[in-house]
Design goal:
The complex is a heterodimer of chains A (115) and B (112). Helices cover 0% and strands 56% of the residues of chain A. Chain A is mostly beta strands. In chain A, strands 2, 4, 5, 6, 9, 10 and 11 form a 7-stranded mixed β-sheet that branches. A 4-stranded antiparallel β-sheet of chain A has the order 1-3-8-7, with no helix packed on it. The radius of gyration of chain A is 13 Å and the shape is globular. The radius of gyration of chain B is 13 Å and the shape is globular. Classes of the chains: A mainly beta (115), B mainly beta (112). At the A-B interface, strand 9 and strand 10 of A face strand 5, strand 6 and strand 11 of B.
C-alpha cells in the first residue's frame, strides 16, 4: 500500500450520468494530483492542488470538476462525459508541490468506462 | 519543450538475463529523473530517482539506472531479471517548474 486510496476501483457510466471519484491520502502530504492514463500515451496531468489551492489546470474540459475540501481528500466530479474519456484515473500525492526532487505516491486508480 | 521518450513499447528478456529499459529526455535546466513501475491493476510505484551526484543510482528490487548527461539518457537496468519484474515501466522527468513529464511506458516481460 502506498498510503493513497482511490474509490471506486471501477466505474461504468453513461454519457448523461454524474459521478465522482474519491481519493484519500494518509501520508500527511500537502500536494495532491489527478492524472489520466490512456494506453500508449504519457500520463496526462489534469489538476494539482497544493494546500487545498488549485495550482495547475492543464486545459481540462469543464466536464471534469475537481474538489479538494482538505489536504487529505481530493475528488473528481464527472458529468456528461464522452466515450474518449474512458481511461484509468490516477490520484497521487507528494510532500509538497515545490520540491523538484520529490517523488509522487500513486493510488491504484479508478478504471472508468463511458458508454 | 520538456519531453521523455521511451523508444520501446515492449521488452522481452529471459529470466536470469540482464535487462535494460531505455529512456531519453529533453528538459531545460538540471533534470530530476525518475523511474516508476506499474503492476497490473495498480498505480505507479516509485523505483528510483536521480537528483545530482553519482551517475549510477540504485533503487528498489535490485534496479539501478545510469544518468548520461551527454546522451540525455537515463536507462533502467537490472543484472538478473525475475519473472516478478514483469510490469509496465515509466520514465519521468521533473523540471524546475515542478511539472512531471512521463514517457509512454515500456512493457517488460520476463520469460521463465
Amino acid at each position: 500500500e502506498t498510503g493513497v486510496t482511490q474509490t471506486p476501483r471501477h466505474l461504468v457510466m453513461g454519457m448523461t450520468n454524474k459521478k465522482s471519484l474519491k481519493c484519500e491520502q494518509h501520508l500527511g502530504h500537502n500536494a495532491m494530483y489527478w492524472y489520466k492514463q490512456s494506453a500508449k500515451k504519457p500520463l496526462e496531468l489534469m489538476f494539482v492542488y497544493s494546500l487545498e489551492e488549485r495550482v495547475e489546470n492543464n486545459s481540462v474540459p469543464s466536464r471534469f470538476s475537481p474538489e479538494c475540501p482538505n489536504s487529505s481528500h481530493l475528488f473528481l466530479h464527472l458529468h456528461t462525459l464522452q466515450p474518449e474519456d474512458s481511461a484509468l484515473y490516477l490520484c497521487a500525492s507528494s510532500q509538497s508541490w515545490t520540491g523538484s526532487s520529490e517523488k509522487l505516491f500513486f493510488g491504484s486508480g479508478t478504471q472508468l468506462s463511458v458508454l | 519543450a520538456q519531453s521523455v521518450a521511451q523508444p520501446e513499447d515492449q521488452v522481452n528478456v529471459a529470466e536470469g538475463n540482464p535487462l535494460t529499459v531505455k529512456c531519453t529526455y529533453s528538459v531545460s535546466g538540471n533534470p530530476y529523473l525518475f523511474w516508476y513501475v506499474q503492476y497490473p491493476n495498480r498505480g505507479l510505484q516509485f523505483l528510483l530517482k536521480y537528483i545530482t551526484g553519482d551517475n549510477l543510482v540504485k533503487g528498489s528490487y535490485g534496479f539501478e539506472a545510469e544518468f548520461n548527461k551527454s546522451q540525455t539518457s537515463f536507462h533502467l537496468k537490472k543484472p538478473s531479471a525475475l519473472v516478478s519484474d514483469s510490469a509496465l515501466y515509466f520514465c519521468a522527468v521533473r523540471d524546475s517548474g515542478n511539472q512531471f513529464y512521463f514517457g509512454t511506458g515500456t512493457s517488460l516481460t520476463v520469460i521463465p
